[in-house]
Amino acid sequence: MEQQTPPNQLNIEIAEEVAEGTYANLAIITHSHAEFVVDFVNVMPGTPKSKVKSRIILTPQHAKRLMKALAENVAKYEELNGDIKDLEDLAVPLNFGGVTGQA
After folding, report:
1. What is the model's pTM?
2. Is 40 exposed, middle or buried (0-12, 13-18, 19+ CB in 10 A)?
3. I need a labelling partner for 59 at 20 to 30 A (CA). Which of 2, 20, 28, 70 fits?
4. Which residues is 75 bridged to in the sheet?
């Protein structure tokens, strides 16, 4: 017997390579009147150049929904695990303790 998707329920599939995810430790956000662009970057210690690993483009309405969803999830996380320390509070240098490149 074939399983039916209930009305108003979205069936979402994820490809294996997408499910593996992409690590990023920097997000750069820009916007215009019509869209928000979020570039995710992986900055490596001692490396003067980094590449954007992923770019997500959102409408302003979806950007606001994402902001609210992130705020709710961070609050739930901190409720279970304690406060997340902000990087500015930890005084981590931009080179992450690695060797600074010199020419």
Report:
1. 0.72
2. middle
3. 20
4. none
